Amino acid sequence: MIDLDAYLARIGLDPASHPSWQAIHRAQVMAIPFENLDAHGGRPVSLVQADLEDKLVHRRRGGYCFEHNLLLGAALRRLGLEVEAMLGRSRSGSPPPGGRPATHVLLRVTDQTGCRWHADAGFGPGTLLEPIPFGPGGEHEQDGWRYRVVADDDELVLQVAGSGGFVDLYGFVPTPVPRVDLEVGNWWVCTSPRSAFVSGLIVGVSHGDGAREVLSDWSGSLRRIVRTPAGSTETAEAPARLPALLADRFGLPGFEIGADGRIVAAGT
């Protein structure tokens, strides 16, 4: 990481307080929105470290899993932790026949005592708030949300508890991948016409009371959804209100709707 102090300030932590790495994980989830505005607007996403810090730290934007977790991983390495990236496949909703591509990145973090942890600040607004022990195990409650990891053949599966019991979020083979695999996965996510991050819009934030707020058109119309461990509410939104919603609800000012109907930076 180029500027650790600026990163900590961005996520609301005082560098002089020497926060724990677990506190850094939670703070990033709370402070930096999840969003795909660049991919949705036809702008490829860079994973170069300087570009990640410029966008998410200095320009106070958000990002999706590759951006979030590579930024977090760089900070944790700067603190002396061992960080390994792995690729998973989303299992949320109804996966298509043959499954989804392995385009979700998560982290395995080894601390100074040798303990391994499952860290992930980038699975949308439903991501882990704090790291959990790596591998299958019991439940972990975080602000009312209950998570667990189970084994499924050669994969590990992160699950979250819902009204009908635990449901799958994503599965992954617990083997680190080289950087080139991350670059290829990211390129598909932000450029392929088949990617939901190109064809659709999703923005989300996590609140300190356990609520997660999402703005998305993946259902076919623009909707704002507030999820809590007790349930969710949905509100239909007019597309013309998108720039105001981004600014007022998600801390992302400076956007407008372009001539092609996609979101662009104001004045471009």
What does this structure look like?
The protein is an alpha+beta fold and 268 residues long. It has a single domain, classed as Arylamine N-acetyltransferase fold (2-Layer Sandwich), CATH 3.30.2140. The protein has eight helices and 15 strands. Strand 3 and strand 4 form a beta hairpin. Helix 4 crosses helix 5. The chain is globular. The two termini are 30 Å apart.
- Give the name of the CATH architecture: 2-Layer Sandwich
Q: Going across the major beta sheet, what is the strand order?
A: 5-4-3-2-9-8-7-6
CATH-defined topology? Arylamine N-acetyltransferase fold
**Mean pLDDT reading:** 95
Tally the helices.
Answer: 8
Can you tell me the residue ranges where pLDDT is under 50 for at least 5 consecutive residues?
Answer: none
The CATH class label is Alpha Beta
Supply the number of structural domains: 1
Query: Which structural class is indicated by helix and strand composition?
Result: alpha+beta
Helix content: 25-40%
User: Tell me, what's the shape?
Assistant: globular
Count the beta strands. Answer: 15
Distance between the termini: 30 Å
Q: Profile the largest sheet.
A: 8 strands, antiparallel
**Binned strand content:** 25-35%
Using only C-alpha atoms, the radius of gyration works out to 18 Å
SSE string: HHEHHHEEEEEEEEHHEEEEHEE
